[in-house]
């Protein structure tokens, strides 16, 4: 399966990137006339045929739609910046577990400031191609947590993974409130007291525990999204 940001309609020509062309010919060993599934995040999934394969890349031809456009549940994963490698894992798992959007955030104790993010987009696309989803999660540039909270739509419940120790188990909270619109995971150093205080004062925030042990941010993100997916059912 390939993600190609091109309009997909019967007969349309589709030009994969050079890397994708190489993947089609050298890895998948496709030849002219062979088929590949393509999606663009808007027009559903299409069966395409390899029309040309040359040094300057391949050209596909859109044949027929195999699946109408569909989107997974509308979950934002708000994740404090942690080491690059772990952020890459988190983006990949968020795409696999159905998050619609990954929002990187800077908190009092985030101590990494690599900025993005082209690589993270490529990881999101690759994971979306592999999972069979028809959209690619957006990965937003890092924003300060206060700024995200200031502009938050209070109709969207935010599950705050709080390792502080006295929060309810996430599974119990979800049984009561239903799947949230967003999950917030803190940095390696955890949330500062004043951040925790602000978060717990907000009506749309649901503090939850992911168990008695302190998880790394990437483990916490995967655990929380898995519980959310179990509650959301899709
Ligand atoms: N403050 C932690 C400590 O004392 O080592 C470090 C924070 S932890 C590495 C990173 C984030 O994962 C936390 O801010 C929290 O959002 C989430 N997290 C980790 N373990 C958790 C747990 N048992 N329950 C809820 N959230 C957890």
Automatic annotation (TrEMBL):
<dbReference type="InterPro" id="IPR015947">
    <property type="entry name" value="PUA-like_sf"/>
</dbReference>
<dbReference type="Pfam" id="PF04452">
    <property type="entry name" value="Methyltrans_RNA"/>
</dbReference>
<dbReference type="InterPro" id="IPR006700">
    <property type="entry name" value="RsmE"/>
</dbReference>
<feature type="domain" description="Ribosomal RNA small subunit methyltransferase E methyltransferase">
    <location>
        <begin position="74"/>
        <end position="229"/>
    </location>
</feature>
<dbReference type="InterPro" id="IPR029028">
    <property type="entry name" value="Alpha/beta_knot_MTases"/>
</dbReference>
<dbReference type="InterPro" id="IPR029026">
    <property type="entry name" value="tRNA_m1G_MTases_N"/>
</dbReference>
<dbReference type="InterPro" id="IPR046886">
    <property type="entry name" value="RsmE_MTase_dom"/>
</dbReference>
<feature type="domain" description="Ribosomal RNA small subunit methyltransferase E PUA-like">
    <location>
        <begin position="19"/>
        <end position="61"/>
    </location>
</feature>
<keyword id="KW-0489">Methyltransferase</keyword>
<comment type="similarity">
    <text>Belongs to the RNA methyltransferase RsmE family.</text>
</comment>
<comment type="function">
    <text>Specifically methylates the N3 position of the uracil ring of uridine 1498 (m3U1498) in 16S rRNA. Acts on the fully assembled 30S ribosomal subunit.</text>
</comment>
<keyword id="KW-0808">Transferase</keyword>
<protein>
    <recommendedName>
        <fullName>Ribosomal RNA small subunit methyltransferase E</fullName>
        <ecNumber>2.1.1.193</ecNumber>
    </recommendedName>
</protein>
<dbReference type="GO" id="GO:0008168">
    <property type="term" value="F:methyltransferase activity"/>
</dbReference>
<keyword id="KW-0963">Cytoplasm</keyword>
<dbReference type="GO" id="GO:0032259">
    <property type="term" value="P:methylation"/>
</dbReference>
<dbReference type="Pfam" id="PF20260">
    <property type="entry name" value="PUA_4"/>
</dbReference>
<keyword id="KW-0698">rRNA processing</keyword>
<keyword id="KW-0949">S-adenosyl-L-methionine</keyword>
<dbReference type="InterPro" id="IPR046887">
    <property type="entry name" value="RsmE_PUA-like"/>
</dbReference>
